[in-house]
Design a protein that fits this description.
By secondary structure, the protein is mainly α. It contains 18 helices and no strands. Bound molecules: 4-fluoro-L-phenylalanine.
């Protein structure tokens, strides 16, 4: 094993682990992506399939990743190497850790840019910049904003710096302090926004759309979209849960913790939907509005409603908070690897990986303006990166992880680490061995166009 043995920190309690993993899972995916995907894919039916995917596929993989982390007690690359040796199989499984780490690193480069947009929108909304503008006016703001590399670079830099400052302070000093504050704040602000949505007169309309499945809307495309999103939303297949699991003290039930995180992740997504859809219906915004839903439409709605500068400001604060507790998790595997295997100090590892990630993020910034017409296979830099990570690297990594834990990891190790009763263990075992690989293979084949 290369690298040095450094004294390892741990989460101070199971609550801390649950908060941190929830903070990682809840992010732009829940609040920005989930509502527009649900709008596009028929509301209730999308939500139903998404829930099934979480339960049958994502939670078992999440359990597997935390398990790998807790047994290995190292960064994702080293943990996989240790576990493959303990199971008498090839050391090359360590590449699975590298693959996840690279995916997380690439995702962070664009995640930070989009999160930078949310930072900027806190100020734009709270200072009433959108006041008196109609839909077109607000849309023009957005178009002008993303056309400016300078503005985006400033916000991207600020967001990345905030991420690095937190991660540089380590587990108990940085990550724990951050999630302890951020996660409850997020629930509080969402509840306030839902309260506002309740008063729009369209709450039932929004709730029915989101929670009542209309089976006639079920298509293969909906299933695949829900499956892919469940993956992204739970932060699996990126080494994040391995890294977080490696700091988890023994004696805490991994299955219980995973179920709580998945439930919290789902509740936030549903709360975000319940806050957003009544506003969308009340303002006759098309359901198929797509990824621009929040940045183009909500400021318009906030500009018109009483107290909109406050609620709008709060909403974007919420989004930035959610993004921050996800971004710190995205960089943690790389930082842990640089510290443990490459003998760098934690501060040095943070700044080195953060600067590289920031630099890569410039490609995403430029893809909305000066590189807009620079495409490869019809995709801009940002679209290419998103496709490479979400559609190729994540499914591939999730598939391999299910195969490794389900088929290669020594059964004795798994059985002793998962303190579950025989029935629960058997359910998980079936899911990770057969159901998860099968379903993930389906996403992957769709992503690379075989299906
Ligand atoms: N789950 C986060 C979200 O829904 O926004 C995004 C994310 C964070 C994905 C961390 C992956 C990850 F490792």
């Amino acid at each position: 094993m290369r690298g040095k043995r450094v004294a390892r920190q741990q989460w101070s309690s199971s609550l801390m682990f649950v908060l941190a993993a929830t903070g990682s899972a809840v992010g732009l995916g829940n609040i920005w992506k989930f509502p527009y995907l649900a709008g596009k894919h028929g509301g209730g039916i999308f939500v139903l399939v998404y829930l099934l995917c979480l339960l049958l596929l994502c939670i078992p993989i999440m359990v597997a990743e935390i398990l790998v982390g807790r047994i290995g007690r190292r960064n994702p690359v080293a943990s996989l190497e240790i576990l493959s040796q303990l199971s008498g199989c090839r050391k090359s499984w360590r590449w699975l850790g590298t693959l996840g780490m690279v995916a997380g690193f690439l995702i962070l480069s664009y995640y930070s840019v989009i999160a930078g947009w949310t930072l900027s929108y806190i100020f734009k909304t709270a200072t009433g910049e959108f006041r008196g503008h109609d839909a077109e006016g607000v849309e023009n703001f957005f178009i002008e904003f993303i056309a400016s590399p300078r503005q985006q670079i400033v916000w991207h830099t600020l967001f990345m710096t905030a991420t690095l400052v937190i991660v540089a302070h380590g587990i108990q000093g940085g990550l724990e302090k951050a999630v302890e504050l951020l996660t409850p704040a997020l629930f509080l602000i969402l509840t306030i926004l839902m309260g506002y949505a309740l008063g729009t007169g369209e709450f039932m309309h929004g709730a029915l759309f989101l929670l009542f499945p209309d089976i006639s809307n079920l298509t293969a495309e909906t299933v695949l979209a829900a499956l892919g999103h469940a993956f992204f939303s739970l932060s699996i297949a990126m080494g994040v849960m391995i890294a977080y699991g490696s700091y988890l003290p023994n004696g805490i039930s991994i299955i219980k913790a995973s179920l709580i995180v998945a439930a919290a992740d789902t509740v936030v997504a549903i709360m975000a939907g319940l806050a957003i859809f009544p506003l969308v219906f009340a303002n006759h915004v098309p359901l198929t509005f797509g990824p621009g839903l929040i940045f183009k439409t909500l400021p318009m709605i906030f500009a018109q409603m009483p107290g909109g500068t406050l609620f709008g400001g709060l909403f974007f604060v919420l989004l930035a908070i959610a993004a921050l507790s996800s971004s710190i998790s995205l960089i943690e595997p790389t930082v842990a690897w640089l510290v443990e295997d490459k003998a760098l100090s934690r501060g040095m590892a943070c700044w080195l990986s953060g600067m590289t990630c920031w630099f890569l993020g410039l490609g995403t910034v430029f893809s909305f303006n000066i590189w807009r017409d620079l495409t490869v296979f019809d995709k801009t830099f940002f679209q290419g990166l998103d496709f490479l990570t979400s559609n190729l690297l994540l499914p591939l990594n999730g598939l391999m992880m299910a195969i490794f834990v389900g088929w290669f990891l020594r059964h004795k190790l798994t059985r002793s680490e998962l303190d579950a009763g025989p029935v629960l263990f058997a359910c998980w075992w079936l899911l990770i061995r057969f159901v998860a690989p099968g379903a993930v293979m389906l996403i992957f084949m769709q992503a690379i166009g075989i299906l």
